[in-house]
Amino acid sequence: MAKVKETTGIVGLEVVPNAREVLIGLYTKTLDEIKSVPEDEGYRKAVESFTTHRLKVCQEEQNWETIEKRIGCGQVEELIEEAQDELKLIGHLKEWKPWDIPDDYECEVIENNAPVPKHVPLHRPGPLPEEFYKTLEAVNTDTLKDVISSTPKGETAIP
């Protein structure tokens, strides 16, 4: 007899007793809806790939615990929410059509030292450690093997 799930342990996320059947329905609908996205779009390829895998797992397994373990992305109830959200996103994408960019569309390119508009988050990575630049120089000058082979065991090759 299959183990009965009493709680998800997540506040506000109720147990879905027929989660397997719900997932099969949602994944089947997702695979049908995603066909409205052009075949060469990366988003479509990704959605088809993981949804096909998840649908196959749900069709092969009867037990919710095995489904959760094989998919490895949370509880079946969380997977249901994800699948519902994916369907909503596909609906928005069908409306927005981000793949229909006119050929004459010009995108603003921000060069290295150009001022960044205030609405764009500014991310500047911190400086890299000095060892990185020394290693990079050794790699670029083909001296890395020499430096490593001449370094005594237990010491850092590039200080």
Describe the structure.
With 159 residues, this protein is mainly α. It contains six helices and no strands. It is extended. The relative contact order is 0.11. The model has no long low-confidence stretch (mean pLDDT 88).
- How far from one another are the termini? 63 Å
Percent range of helical residues: 40-55%
Q: Give the integer mean of the pLDDT values.
A: 88
Strand content: under 5%
> Roughly how many Å is the radius of gyration?
25 Å
- Number of helix segments? 6
Summarize the main sheet: none
Low-confidence stretches: none
Structural class comes to mainly alpha
Which term fits the overall shape? extended
What is the number of beta strands? 0
Q: From N to C, what is the helix and strand string?
A: HHHHHH
Which properties best describe this structure?
mainly alpha, 159 residues, 0% strand, single chain
Q: What's the helix and strand layout?
A:
Layout: H1 19-33, H2 42-60, H3 64-71, H4 76-96, H5 130-140, H6 144-149
Helix pairs in contact: 1-2, 1-4
Briefly characterize the structure.
This protein is mostly helical.
